[in-house]
Amino acid sequence: MAARGRVLGVIPARLASSRFPEKALASKTGKPMVVHVLEAALQAKSLDGVIVAADHPRIIEAVRAHGGEAMLTREDHPNGTSRLSEVAERTRAEILVNIQGDEPEIEADAIDAATNLLLATPWADVATLASPFSPHEDPGNRNLVKVVLAGNGRALYFSRSPIPCHRDAAAGVLVPAPMLRHVGLYAYRAAFLQEFVQWPASPLERSESLEQLRVLENDRAIVVGIRESSTQGIDTPEQYEAFVSRHANRLRR
User: Fold this and answer.
1) Which of 29, 186, 202, 214 is deepest in the core (most CB within 10 A)?
2) How far apart, in whole angstroms, are the C-alpha atoms of residue 22 and residue 124?
3) CB neighbours of 243 closer than 8 A, spacing ≥ 6?
4) Same-fold call for 1-106 versus 107-181+191-229
5) Do residues 58 and 153 make contact, with C-beta atoms less than 8 angstroms apart?
6) Per-position b or e across 34-48, b if 16+ CB within 10 A of its CB
7) How far are the Cα atoms of 9, 26, 87, 142 from residue 107, in angstroms, in the given order?
């Protein structure tokens, strides 16, 4: 397996999906969705390699048929972070970047931003990104996670509720701290990742259903970079159809 180096991009993928069965292999564009993610990630300059970590031989075969690298991992992982930890155990990477397998339009620049931020921040165990809300996004949407930061970029809290609370916004008072939408892209130090998966789910994590709160509750540091980003994952067949349409439009240009 050639995917080796200090910084490894990992795309966790599983065959089952409750809202969109076998979405990793959806191929209306002529390529499986997970291959689109792989090709986008390979454009990132900060990665020494990219590998798909999957739970089923069909995904492995599909990735390899398109020239990509893939690792068959255990079926019992509860989430992508846990699957990432198995890759950490089986490679020599010092930093692993978790690239969501359902984001075929992931921006290589975003991957580079998260990776380079962790490399430049020795006090952080994890790096991730946040984006200002666009006019069409509703901060009250619980599916859009919000984050608040300290002055040095350290994450103070993540929530599905609108944070910070703009108490006087209705009165027209200038808002000094705009809301930030969390972008679910993570770069981990390999040693920390092995610690993290051994910890039980924390109270705030269970309350908000946000895994990153386990890091904060164990008094470890997440550094957050701010950049414009509109990339979102594909959770439903309808969202996939919209991606297929955008992909076709790009090919016609």
Assistant:
1) 186
2) 35
3) 29, 33, 104, 105, 234
4) yes
5) no
6) bbbbbbbbeebebbe
7) 13, 20, 23, 24
Contact 121, 223 (CB under 8 A): yes
Cα–Cα distances (Å) from 119 to 29, 127, 140, 186, in that order, read 35, 9, 33, 13
Domain 1-106 has CATH 2.60.40.1120: no
Domain at 107-181+191-229: CATH architecture = Alpha-Beta Complex (3.90)
**Whose structure tokens read 């291959």?**
35
Contact 103, 37 (CB under 8 A): yes
Q: Where are the domains of the chain?
A: 1-106, 107-181+191-229
pTM over 0.90: yes
Closest among 13, 17, 19 to 55, alpha carbons compared? 13
**Cβ atoms of residues 86 and 98 within 8 Å:** no
For residue 164, whether the previous peptide bond is cis, meaning omega lies within 30 degrees of 0, is yes
Compute the distance between CA of residue 113 and CA of residue 107 in angstroms, rounded to an integer.
10
Instruction: Find where tokens 């959806």 sit.
Output: 26
